[in-house]
Amino acid sequence: MNEQTITENQSPVFPYGNDPAGISLRGFSTISATATALGVFAVFLLNISTPIAFIRDRFASLIQETGLNLVLAALGRLMILPGIMVLASGLSALAMYLILRPVSRCLDVLKAGHQPPAEWTGAAGRRLINLPFIAIVVNVGIWIALPLIFLVSASISEYINTRTAMIFSIRAFMVGLIASSLAFYKIESHARKKVIPFFFPRGRLAELEGTARISISRRIRMFFRLGTVVPGTILLVTLLTLQLEVDPDIISARQYGQGIIYFTIVLSLIFFLITGILNRLVGRSIVDPLEEMLRQVAAIRQGDYSSRIQVVSNDEIGVLGDAGNRMIRGLADREKIRSAFGKYVTPEIRDQILSGRIPLQGERRVATVLFADLRNFTPFVESNPPEEVISSMRAYFTAMHQAIRDHRGLVVQFVGDEIEAVFGVPIPFETHAEAAVEAALGMRQALKRLNNERASEGKPPFAHGIGIHSGDVLAGNSGSSEQSAYALIGNTVNVASRIQGLTRELECDILLSQGTVDYIKKDMHMEEYPKRLVKGYSKPIIVHRVIS
């Protein structure tokens, strides 16, 4: 172990997924050995079902035995199969164990609670991604070596004629291609379940250099060729062999045909089962990642931006998954900005600005403007510490803002101890005047509740005045080219502010103009005042005090 990078007390800080204690590599050797054993068994079934002279002679010699000799001869022939299966599977499992050494070495360090060196983690990651490709090369090598050894041994011992041995060897190699492909997809599937997510919790497998990859189209083409070319080749070679050795004096045409039919049935069943397994593995290798993406898309649709697509491959789907994760991170960042932005402006303005629907030059609308202002605020500021002022102002603004929001109002800005709100923009609705008055009544009740709380804490009560006016406003972006703000411009805004100022003079808390009353269609308990001039406006106006 590299003592320079791993110390006894080093904390396990590494970018891996789950607890390494739950990660095991034994399954890879089991998969490789099982696929090889299945291949050997398939070769055995094909060989004994082939109606060639060698097989017929073996069965004929077995039938001639009796008693104990028959049992011993049958056991001797039966032991050949498990012996070959153990040999081939053992070689495959051993090869897989050696191939996985970089990964197991890294896991051993992690399970011990240490951080492995960077070169170890890089080697483990590359070996893990390349594992199916290395495994198929090694397994194909085994399926080349063992039949070749069988062919040479048979030629030397003369136990079987060279032509038959060659046919058996070619057949074993062809079946070995299928078995190796089965191991490829099964190892890939096993790696994707736990091991790859552990080593690559953030995906980005395609960015790791020194790794092999197989495209989706090539994956499908390889499966098609394995499922058609291999069984067709086996059948063709078998038929050619039978044609060369058939002797009409030994076997009849009927027996010959029955033998061919029997062999074809066995061949078809074997490849029907194997290609069925391959078809499922190939299909799942494509469908599972896509279903994972669809699940995350559904989560995003529900507003969950915390989850990520689990990327387990470096093919086109893996690249798409990485792109999807980048998109999710971008959406999450945008949502954070959107939420933060919404704390400084109301959600309506925020959404209008982010969607680009607020024109820079503004838009003229008929709306109702409301101004609320705290009374005797300057003495309150002078007699209280800044912390108390800020806390009290926040409580007041929160209560008033909620009452305005409850009636579809929009707080345009807080200025000092004053609130400017509007009803009917940026989202228009016909009952904006009524909504403004109902919001003012709600603010009255909210202030009473707030004052009760302040009285229980020994704090002085608040009082405010509210002025409301309806008319044309120009609503839109204002400010500089570098920093814009949503604002209301027009005479309606000025008049509403002046009416708010009248509340102090008339000693009431809610005043609204005749222009607002003209828009109200429901009965409200109000008291009308005579016409009067307000500061900054040349024409006299009629105002109404809202009683209830």
Explain how this protein is built.
- The chain is α+β, with helices and mostly antiparallel strands and 548 residues long.
- The protein has two domains: 20-203 and 214-268, no CATH class; 356-546, Nucleotide cyclase, GGDEF domain (Alpha-Beta Plaits).
- It has 15 helices and eight strands.
- Strands 1, 2, 3, 4, 5, 6, 7 and 8 form an eight-stranded mixed β-sheet that branches.
- A hairpin with a 2-residue loop joins strand 2 and strand 3.
- The protein is elongated and about 130 Å long.
- Mean pLDDT is 80; it is low at 1-15 and 70-74.
Summarize the structure.
The chain contains 15 helices and eight strands. The protein folds into two domains: 20-203 and 214-268, no CATH class; 356-546, Alpha-Beta Plaits, CATH 3.30.70. The chain is elongated, with a radius of gyration of 42 Å.
